[in-house]
Structure formats: structure tokens, C-alpha cells
Amino acid sequence: MVESVAFGLTKEYRDRFQQALDKRDDAFILKNLEGVNAADITALLYEFNSQESKYVLDLLDVEIRAEIITELDRDTRIAFFKIYQPDELIKIIDHLDSDDAADILNELPIKIREEVLAGLDKVLRMQVIDLLRYDENVAGGLMAKELVTAHVNWTVVQCIEEIRKQVENVSKFYAVYVVDDYNKLLGRVHLQQLILTDSKTLVKDIYDPELISVQTHLEDTEVASMMRKYDLESVPVVNVYGQLVGRITIDDVVDVITEQAEEERQLMSGISEDVEEDDSIWRLTRARLPWLLIGIIGGLISVQFIGLFAIDLMRITAIAFFIPLIQATGGNVGIQSSSIVVQSLANPGFVEEGLWKRLIKVFLVALLNGFLLSLIVLAANMLLGGDNNRLFIVVSLALFTVVLVASLIGTITPLILNKFGFNPALASGPFITTTNDLLGLGIYFLTIHFFL
Amino acid sequence: MVESVAFGLTKEYRDRFQQALDKRDDAFILKNLEGVNAADITALLYEFNSQESKYVLDLLDVEIRAEIITELDRDTRIAFFKIYQPDELIKIIDHLDSDDAADILNELPIKIREEVLAGLDKVLRMQVIDLLRYDENVAGGLMAKELVTAHVNWTVVQCIEEIRKQVENVSKFYAVYVVDDYNKLLGRVHLQQLILTDSKTLVKDIYDPELISVQTHLEDTEVASMMRKYDLESVPVVNVYGQLVGRITIDDVVDVITEQAEEERQLMSGISEDVEEDDSIWRLTRARLPWLLIGIIGGLISVQFIGLFAIDLMRITAIAFFIPLIQATGGNVGIQSSSIVVQSLANPGFVEEGLWKRLIKVFLVALLNGFLLSLIVLAANMLLGGDNNRLFIVVSLALFTVVLVASLIGTITPLILNKFGFNPALASGPFITTTNDLLGLGIYFLTIHFFL
User: Fold this and answer.
1) Bridge-partner residues for A176, per DSSP?
2) Residues A328, B160: C-beta atoms closer than 8 Å
3) What does the alpha-carbon distance between residue A20 and residue A10 come to, in Å, rounded to a whole number?
4) What is A11-133's CATH number?
5) Res. B352: pLDDT tops 90
6) How far is CA A253 from the centre of its chain?
7) B29-44: string of b/e by CB count within 10 Å (b at 16+)?
8) Which of A367, B79, B170, B342 has the fewest CB atoms in 10 Å of its CB?
9) What would the CATH number be for the domain defined by B11-135?
10) For residue B120, what pLDDT is reported?
11) Do B265 and A264 lie within an 8 Å CB cutoff?
């Protein structure tokens, strides 16, 4: 039977399931979860508390239990595992791939981690200990140890024998990696080649030596952009000696890409923690306050700053009318500029243009934008505002300057952040926006002060 | 030999290559590009003009030429193909997978498209004609026709024979799809099963019927989130009758996810076209102006609006000092709120909470944020601003109200946009920010007017 549609989760279904849980109606639970994909069961379990979820999990096969555990998001899993005993954890983790097992062990309190590690299956334990050495943001932290290798002098039939041995451990594999006596990676053999070649053929005669591999210390975002660029479904990981130590599959990289996009959105919108709509009110507040406070501090500085020009304001009240116009334009121009830079930093591959060439171009675009916008504002003011041409010309002059300055700041900031190892998307966040706001205000009031 | 590092592109190398191109030094060009990955050659060719790039391509094998063509971004390809004759296009497109061929044909002017289509290899032509029927944003537009199918009554040896026939056409395959007499999809057989099973075994005894498939009309973003959720490396596409019509591989979906993230960034930063830093000045300006104009219009409305309160401003100049504070906070709160909603819309899977429950929670978070922020601002004002307590209380009151209103607008807008089929990330863009700015200003001046 083909499962054409994803398992739908309705409120009614959840309530019905909750009833079954309350009554400990194991038959109902098992019947309803039979044949359901682990990812769907996970989504369902998010609706219940830890005790209830554990009750359901304990009814299921340990393989499915293990799969569900890997589907959980990190925070939920950390909370959830608090009600588990070490021996229960060992049973589950023994059924995981080495990369997932290492991730989960990293989340456990150190005492429990040691206890669980000691109880794991010996092969898995050695693999996990090896993986725990790597930072989670590099290739070594992304890779799994499960892979099928063949010695370059083997025959096809020996290869197939090796696959037969490994088939239980390696859930997804696309190729057999070919190594020499020292486990140095030489190339790979595609599965379809094994099917199509005579069984006495030697691996050395059919393997493909043109293989892209990554070193353990390569950053995860670079692994992602490399796999994307070369359309790879999996990539072998080698150490500095070129020895094969693991492999990364595309599904891990899809997660990296998605997390990167989410992190960027959070930076751009000024949220300082990884929160979701269903987090607690306190957590949501805490994630939002820091950046709001930066905005508030910027605002308080504005108060002091405008205060310096109180005399000008008393003289010509209309000065105040244009504050929002100047600020909003400065902010928008700054965000647009930094966004374009962030995008080109995310898609490298062209020869880097020199910084000056880049800035001159940004300057020209800003000149054109600034000129058009100031002209439009001047015309609109003259049409709507009556007889105050001197003020209007000064406003347009200030607006023009703000567009130029905001463009340059918006362009330079992400470049500087990137150079010092920060995420350039920070430049589109509240900190830079606040700086831009203040600069815009400064330019406006100084222009007014000197020209009016 | 293992290619451990990506091919590096330096300015010196580009200049050396340019020299070779100027001198038509074919030997140098060929020697330097031998064994280089198509994606790397593509990156290099971006450095030269169309004529030069075509000169290089014509030196290369048609297979590599075809690969390079698929690597190009859409706009570059459209421009590049203008210097090609239809018969040259036919030669290249004949070497593409059906999905890439259909994408490229879609980019050609209609007259040339017909000419090229007529000249294509017959099998490919039929496949492409079928694919051209689908919108590019649905599963049908993402899928390729190249796949290996086996009849459920076949033996393993017949399967392998079929793979042998198809191996030239299908570049990446992970599984054999099993169908019945009517081409209805029944399940699949993994490659490793074919390797491990006796060749006389029947397909019906080894195929896996638990298979997730998608229908042709499913949206590309939904295909992406489904493949991500279920960790699929490829997914078969069926029509409404359940007949197998194509398959989508994970690399296409990685592109969808990346494009989605880029589109969202553009929406959030108010860029209306898909531009890059190296586009022309005019194109960059055109992409930025529309949203900047919306900001300008908002600013001009502010001018008129504040003008209504000129009397209040003349009476108490200090009112103007707080305009940036109020506006920036309103803007930041709005963007944060919509960003959280956009995130939960992008990661569905939980039971939808009712709208009211959602809004009440947002309201509580806003209440807490607003209360804390107003208190901080009140304290800061009293410390720094001297003796104007009445004004300060009114400012904090307005700030509190602005936080509440901006939270609600920031939450509701993406939900409404999503409901009507727009991208909810629009809510974090300039249009909504401008609306929020105006509302903030309105609340502030009305509060001032009535309480001061």
C-alpha cells in the first residue's frame, strides 16, 4: 500500500488519543500507531507531557522508539530524558546511528553520559567516543561512522559480502568507499556498478577515483555549500592523513541549511534565543527583551540628542514632522544594503572584487536611489506642505545624505562582521538598525542646524 | 586521486586564463580544465563574457558542456543562450535530464523553444513535453522522468537487466520503483536488496510497500518539508490515479529550501527582485526603489499627521524628542512577533492551536515586555530628563500601548497573509513596518493630546 498523503493530525484525533492515554488503553494506542512513520508519531507526542509520551514509547518497538528520539528537537529531548533511567537510555541509544548517538550523549549530564557510554554496545561505543572529540559545527561533528569500505585489491564478490555484513548497521548507503592498506581513501564504487559488473572483477578496475571528500575540521556551513554546489548525496570525511573516518549524508546537510536560515531570520528580527511560538511566556519575553532594550537605549540617546536642538525645534516646529521620514528611509536603505552583501557572502564562488570596487558601486547605487527619493520628497512636500521651500530643500538634502551614509554602513558592517567570524546577518538586526537610526537623526539635525 | 579541496579561483588564475582566451590558446585552456568539476568551470566562466564562455564550452565534451549549462543561474543562462543557434542548443539539451531540459526550454523564446523541441531525441522530447505541462512550483515541475521501474511480477534478474538498460539515462538512482499492469505505483526495491537477493527471487516478494509518494500538484515547499521530515533522498511522483509519472531527488529540494530562505530574506529586507551584488546599478536601484517608496509614502503621511499636532508641539517641544524611541520600539516588536509566527508556519506538525489561544499568549508576552520596557524608560527619563514627570508618564503609557498593538499586528498579519496564499515573511518587510510606524505615531500623539 502506498502512503500517499502525510499522516494528518487533527485536534479531534489528539483528544481521542488523550482519552486513550488517560485510560491506559494500550490496544487503541498500538492499533493507531501501527505502521505510522516515526516522524508522524513524534509530531503527535509533542502534544502530550513527558510521562505520557514515555508511556507511549515504551509500548513501541525499540527501533521505532530510537527513531522517534532522533526526531525530537534538542530542547525537548533534554527535558524528556530527565525521566529516563540510564539503562533505558542505553537500550535506545544502542539502536541509533553513531552520529545521532554522539549528539544525544552530548546533551546528557556528564555523569549520566559516562554511565550510558559504558553500557553501550562495544562497536558503537568506540565510534561514539571518536565522534565526541569533534565540535558539533564541523564535518567531524556531522559525520556518521557507519559506512561500507572495500580494499582496493578486493573483488566485487568480496565487496558484496562486506555489504551483506554491514547492511544492518548502515541504513542509507549509496556507494562503497575504496581504501588502501592504511585506510587511505582512494575513491568509490557506486552500487549500480556492483550490480552490473561481473563478480570476479577487481575493485581497482572499476572504482571511481574522482571523488570529492572533506576534512574533519571543515565548517558545517561549508560542507553544506559544497554538497549543494557539487550535488552530492553523501560525502566521505577524511583526517589530515587522508584516512577515511566517516561520511556525511545529505539529510544532515539539509538540517544545517534549514538551521542556518532560521538563525538568520532570528538575527534579522532581533530574537536572541532559539524560541518557538509554543515556548513559555517567560522564555519568549527573555528572547525578545535584549534586542528591544538596545532599541530603547538608542531611543533614549535620541531623546538627549534631539534635546540639543530644542532651540531650533522651538523656532521651527515643522522640523519634528520629518523625523520619521528620515529615520525610516535610513533604516530601510541600511537593511537592503546589508541584505545584498549577506546574500553574496552566502553564495561565494566568484572572484572577490576588491573592497573599493564594491564600495564605489554601492555608492553609485546609493547616489541614484538618494537622488530619486530626495526629488520625490521635495516635489511631494512642495505640493502638500505649502510655503516652506527652504525647509523642504534642507530636508531633501538631509535625506540624500542619509541614504548615502546608510548604504555605506549597511554594506561595510556585514563585511566587517564576517571578517571577524560573526554571522553577517547580524548587520540586518536591531543593533545596526539602531546605529543607523541615530546616524540618520544626527545628519538630519546637523543639516537643519547649519543650513536653516 | 582524491580531490580533497574545492578548486580555488584566484584573481591571478583568472587573469592568466583571460590571456589564454585572448590568444585562443586552446592547449592551455584544455589542460587547465581537464578533470575539473563542471561546477568549478561554471564559477570560472562567470568571469568572462558570453562569447569567451562559449569559446571555452565549445572546446569541451558535450556532456560537460551540458552539466555546466545546468549549473548556470537562470538569468545568466537566458542571456548566454542568445548567442546560440538552435542546433547547438539541441546538441546540449539532448544530454540533459528531462527536468533540466524542461526548465531550460521554459526559458527560451517560444519560437526557438519549438524549434529545439522538434530537434530533440524522441524519448526526451516526449518526456519534456509531459513536464512542460506543470507549473514550476509544484511537484510535477520539480520531477524528472528518468527512473527505473520494475513490474511487480518480474524477477530480480529482470530488474537488473532493466537497470542495465537505463543506467546511461538515470544518473542518480537509489531504488527501483515497482508498478502493476497499469503503471500504478506499488512500492520500491532498494539497490542493496537487489545485490543481496538471489537472482530468481520475485520482485513481489522483496519490494517494500511502505513508500511515501507525492502527487503532481503538491507545492514545491511542501515537497521540501515532507522530504525533510521523513529524511527521504528521493520521492516518487504520482498522478491522481496513483500512476508513477516521475521522481524528485533531494538535490532539487535543497535548491528549493535555499531559494525559499533567500526569498524570505529579500522580503524581510524589502528587495523586490532577485538581485545580486554584481548586477547592474540600474537593476539594483530598481529592485530597491519600490519598497523605499513605500517607506517614503509612510514618512510623508507622518509629516501630515504630526502636522495636526503642531499646536501641542509648540506648547511642549520635548514631545518631539520621543518620536524615534516610540517608533523604533514599535517596529522592533512588530518584526519580532511576525518572525516568531513565520517560524511556526514554516515548521508545522503540531496541532494548530486556536487563534484566540494564540493571541492571548502573544498578548501576555507583550504585556510583560511592554511593562518592563515602559518601566525602564520611565526610570531612565526621570534620571536623565529632570523635572517633567507628567510627560514621562505619558510617554511610558504610549510606549506600553505601542508594544501591545505592534505585537498583535505583527502576529495577525503573517497569519492573514498565509491564509490568502501570500508568503507570511512579507509581514516582516517594509510594508508592515511602515504601517506599524504610522500606528505607533498615532498612538503616541493621541495619548499626548488627551493626557497632557
Assistant:
1) A189
2) no
3) 15
4) 1.25.60.10
5) no
6) 10
7) beebbeeebbbbbbbb
8) B79
9) 1.25.60.10
10) 94
11) yes
Backbone dihedral angles phi then psi of residue B72, each to the nearest 5 degrees = -60, 150
The partner residue sitting opposite A299, judged by closest CB among B228, B328, B342, is B328
Which triple of cell numbers denotes residue B234?
528521493
**Domain A281-451, what architecture?**
Orthogonal Bundle (1.10)
Q: Which of B209, B269, B343 is facing A428, going by the closest CB pair?
A: B269
Judged on CB neighbours under 10 Å (0-12, 13-18, 19+), A51 is: exposed
**Residue type for A131, please?**
L
Strand partners, B430: none
Mean pLDDT of A365-376: 93
Contact A215, A240 (CB under 8 A): yes
Give CA–CA dist B75/B184, Å, rounded: 38
Residue of A nearest to B176 (CA): A192
- Could you write out the DSSP letters of every residue in A334-346? HHHHHHHHHHHHH
| Shortest CA distance from A260: residue in chain B | B261
Comparing alpha-carbon positions, the chain B residue that sits nearest to A258 is B257
CB–CB contact B340 A275 (8 Å): yes
Give B149-256's CATH code, choosing from 1.20.272.10, 3.10.580.10, 3.40.50.12780, 3.40.50.300: 3.10.580.10
| Average pLDDT estimate for B221-243 | 90
Look up the pTM and report it: 0.80
> Which residue, among A152, A154, A151, A149, has the nearest Cα to A199 in the 3D structure?
A154
What does the radius of gyration of chain B's CA atoms come to, in whole angstroms? 30
Q: How far is A119 from chain B (nearest CA, A)?
A: 29
- Computed from CA positions of residues A185, A189, A191, A197, in that sequence, does the dihedral angle turn out positive or negative? negative
What is the tens place of the pLDDT at every residue in B53-96? 999 999 999 999 999 999 888 888 988 899 999 999 999 999 99
Which chain B residues are Cβ-neighbours of A295 within 8 angstroms? 328-329, 331-332
Q: Specify whether the CB–CB gap between B156 and B170 falls below 8 A.
A: no
Nearest to A214 by CA among A244, A193, A186, A190: A244
- Are the Cβ atoms of B428 and A229 closer than 8 angstroms? no
Distance CA B391, CA A11 (A): 49
pLDDT for A198-239, tens place per residue?
888 999 999 989 889 999 999 998 899 888 888 888 899 999
Across the interface, of A2, A6, A322, the residue whose CB is closest to B226 is A6
Rounded-to-integer distance, Cα B337 and Cα B361, Å:
11
Cβ burial, residue B387 (10 Å; 0-12/13-18/19+): exposed
B-chain CB neighbours of A327 within 8 Å are: 324, 327-328
- Tell me if residue B276 falls in helix, strand or coil: coil
Q: What is the ipTM of this complex?
A: 0.78
For the structural domain made of A149-258, what CATH number should be given? 3.10.580.10
Which among B221, B209, B428, B174 has a CA at the least distance from the CA of A332?
B428
Of B172, B271, B434, the CB nearest to A339: B271
| A214 vs B contacts (CB less than 8 Å) | 4
HEC profile of A247-279: EEEHHHHHHHHHHHHHHHHHHHHCCCCCCCCCC
Nearest-CB residue to B167 (from A196, A295, A322): A196
Distance CA B174, CA B385 (A): 70
State how far residue B105 is from chain A, nearest Cα, in angstroms: 22
A213 with B253: Cβ contact below 8 A: no
> Where do the DSSP E strands lie in A43-184?
149-151, 175-179
Q: Where are the domains of chain B?
A: 11-135, 149-256, 281-451
Helix (H), strand (E) at residue A376: helix A355-385
Chain A nearest CA to B111, separation (Å): 32
CB atoms B285 and A46 under 8 Å = no
